[in-house]
Amino acid sequence: MGADEKQAFVEALAVRYGDNLRRFLRTRVRNIADVPDILQETYLRLLRVPNHESIRAPEAYIFTIARHVAQQHSLQTMASAGSVELTTVLADLQAAPESDPALEVSAQQCVRELEHAFRELSPKVQASFLLHRRDGLTVEEVADRLGLSIPMVKKYIVRALVHFRKRLINVE
């Protein structure tokens, strides 16, 4: 399929499903002003698909791409806001559809990058982060359990979040 045919294919999908896709995205992003950007990225990704003839269900395919772009946008927004929740990130990545190998590979790469970023943290930072975020202990409880001061535990948790934020931005 040539470039003109690909563009015509994507334009036809945009005309046919554009309104439904916009409504779909409005329910999935916090800031509806981001919807046009997410739509544009969805169409660009669709243009990059090498073999459009192999798409059996174009509607499902375009909505799958849009959902993945919205998830990535949410992750990037969380990272830039400084409120990265590792469990949320991992849940979003695991929720990526398995029917599209490219999306699955991208999700696996993000999980590997987060695991690598976690291993780069010092043992005290890892323990503080896990006890607080994964196990739900308060900062005071973490400090008692690890024999640290409360300000030090807060510092370690922030250090972990900043580290994840930097790594997520680099992944995108």
Question: Concise description?
Answer:
The protein has about 170 residues and is mainly alpha-helical. The protein is about 75% helix and about 0% strand.
Structural commentary:
By secondary structure, the chain is mainly alpha-helical. The chain folds into 2 domains: 1-81, RNA polymerase sigma factor, region 2, helix turn helix motif (Rna Polymerase Sigma Factor, Chain: A, Orthogonal Bundle), CATH 1.10.1740; 92-172, Arc Repressor Mutant, subunit A. The protein has helices spanning 3-26, 35-47, 58-81, 86-94, 101-120, 123-134, 139-146, 150-171. Helix 1 (3-26) packs antiparallel against helix 2 and helix 6 packs across helix 8. It is elongated and about 65 Å long. The protein starts with a helix and ends with a helix. The mean pLDDT is 80.
Question: So what's the overall shape?
Answer: elongated
Query: Structural class of the helix and strand makeup?
Result: mainly alpha
Could you list the spans in which at least 5 consecutive residues all have pLDDT below 50? none
What is the highest CATH level, the class of the largest domain? Mainly Alpha
Largest sheet: none
Give the CATH architecture of the largest domain.
Orthogonal Bundle
Helix content: over 70%
- Tell me the Rg in angstroms: 20 Å
Count of separate structural domains: 2
Q: What name does the CATH topology of the largest domain carry? A: Rna Polymerase Sigma Factor, Chain: A
What separation lies between the terminal Cα atoms? 29 Å
Q: Give the topology string: H per helix, E per strand.
A: HHHHHHHH
Mean pLDDT: 80
* Tally of helical segments: 8
Count the strands? 0
CATH H level, superfamily name of the largest domain: RNA polymerase sigma factor, region 2, helix turn helix motif
Portion in beta strands: under 5%
